[in-house]
Amino acid sequence: MEKFEAKTLEAAYALATRRFDCSLTELDCEIIQHPSSGLLGLFAKQAIIVVAPKHAGATAEPEQRPVKKATSPINKPRELKPEAHKSVVSAQSKIDKPKASKPKVEKPKADKHTVAQETVLGSFFDEERDVPTPQALSDEQQVLSTAPLQEEIEKELGTLIGCSCFDIDVVEVDVIDNTAYIFIDGEDAALLIGKEGYRYNALSYLISNWLKNKYSLYIKLEIAQFLASQQEMIRSYMVPVIEHVEQEGWGRTRALDGILVQIALEQLREEFPNKYVAIKRARNGERYVLINEFNKR
Q1: Long-range contacts of 161-169, Cβ-Cβ distance < 8 Å, separation of 24 or more
Q2: For the chain, what is the largest distance between any 2 Cα atoms, rounded to a whole number of angstroms?
Q3: Which residue of 39, 78, 148, 222 is most buried, as measured by CB atoms within 10 A?
């Protein structure tokens, strides 16, 4: 009988079957200890089994197999004459030489084809660098190129607002530099903004997700000069924050809601282009803008 230890019973059984070179049904197994993972990895126990073969001849099988291979009469001449192996290898190399020479005739054709491909691809990427980017276009050219997109967005926004109960008669869209500038106005524009801009934030979030997923565009939403008034309000609030950053080298804003945090981010990045300016989220979920050095995030 022999004892085997492993992390699981299956692994212990596998060790036993390898040792005796037989299936598990041909062994008598007794479990001495069941495995246990313990508490947080402590006091773990391994599986322990005691195994004995049902037939005594099972233990001799692993030792008999290499003896059978050594006594094979076929293997004896190869062991007695190692020079024969060298002659076979040299003969095979001679036979393979004509086969290796066949692809040499086709190599020039393949090389011409690959060289042509490389020249075409190389010229393609070289020419691609000279193609003017959309940023190099003038404002008039950008407006003309995005005119169909602007009309489509205006039409869909008009349909969306038409389904509401608000009296809105002006919906204008301009697309410049991957940003959709949207202007909405009407008799119920103040109602569309809502108290403290809650409806404005909800509408801005809705339109932003739609344009980002469908057209890969950012938005600037203006409803009856609400955005301009918010920008002026944030600009006046940023005066003491900017002074603190200039004196201490770092600073942060108070918690800002909705579009205000985005307006503050843009104004502070314009004021401090060489500093780290980013939106952060507090533990309670409120967002603020942090200004710091790049190596002190």
Answers
A1: 166/191, 166/192, 168/192
A2: 107
A3: 222
Are the beta carbons of 14 and 20 closer than 8 angstroms?
no
Contacts of 286 (CB under 8 A, 6+ apart): 255
The predicted structure's pLDDT at residue 131 = 43
Residue 54: count of CB within 10 angstroms of its CB = 11
Please state, rounded to an integer, the average pLDDT across all residues of the chain: 74
∠ CA 279-284-289, rounded to 5°: 15
Cβ-based neighbour number of residue 245 at 10 Å? 20
CA dist., res. 200 & res. 197, Å (int): 5
CATH says 228-292 is which class?
alpha beta
* CATH class of domain segment(s) 139-224: alpha beta
Lowest-pLDDT range of 2-11, 39-48, 129-138:
129-138
pLDDT value at 253 more than 90: yes
- Is it true that 139-224 and 228-292 share their CATH fold? no
> Who wins on pLDDT, 194 or 288?
288
**Is residue 160 pLDDT above 60, yes or no?**
yes
Domains of the chain, residue spans:
2-68, 139-224, 228-292
Distance of alpha carbon 245 from the chain centroid: 35
pTM, two decimals, is: 0.41
Burial of 264 (0-12, 13-18, 19+ CB in 10 A): buried
